């Protein structure tokens, strides 16, 4: 995915039928782009934890997720 936008992320979640059993990790640059697009869409309001359609969106701080790539993690123990 070239640029991760709010619409693209929402479509990705719907198309892949993701639920709250997963979380999405994004490269810090992709995370920042998504947050800025989300703020524009949602009137400069954001909740913590950051979720779209009930799926938590996280910033990767490990350096393992490349830019413009969506990485899913199971939240089940």
Strand sequence of the main sheet, in spatial order? 2-3-1-4
Largest sheet: 4 strands, mixed
Following the backbone from N to C, one meets helices and strands in this order, namely HEHEEE
Global structural class: alpha+beta
End-to-end distance, in Å?
A: 29 Å
Mean pLDDT: 89
Which consecutive residue ranges, at least 5 long each, have pLDDT under 50?
Answer: none
Helix content: 25-40%
Q: How many domain regions? A: 1
Please count the helical segments: 2
What percent strand? 15-25%
Tell how many strands the DSSP assignment holds: 4
Which descriptor suits the 3D outline? globular
Radius of gyration: 12 Å
Write the layout of secondary structure elements.
Blueprint: H1 6-15, E1 22-26, H2 28-41, E2 51-52, E3 55-59, E4 71-74
Parallel strand pairs: 1-3
Antiparallel strand pairs: 1-4, 2-3
3D architecture notes:
- A four-stranded mixed β-sheet has the order 2-3-1-4.
- The longest helix has 14 residues.
- The protein is globular.
- The model has no long low-confidence stretch (mean pLDDT 89).
- The protein has one domain.
- With 77 residues, the chain is an alpha+beta fold.
- The chain has two helices and four strands.
- β2 and β3 form a beta hairpin.
């Amino acid at each position: 995915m070239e640029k991760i936008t709010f619409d693209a992320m929402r479509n990705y979640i719907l198309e892949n039928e993701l639920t709250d059993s997963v979380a999405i990790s994004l490269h810090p640059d992709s995370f920042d782009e998504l947050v800025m697009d989300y703020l524009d869409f949602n009137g400069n309001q954001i909740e913590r934890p950051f979720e779209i359609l009930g799926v938590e969106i996280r910033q990767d701080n490990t350096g393992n997720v490349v830019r413009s790539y969506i990485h899913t993690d199971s939240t089940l123990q």
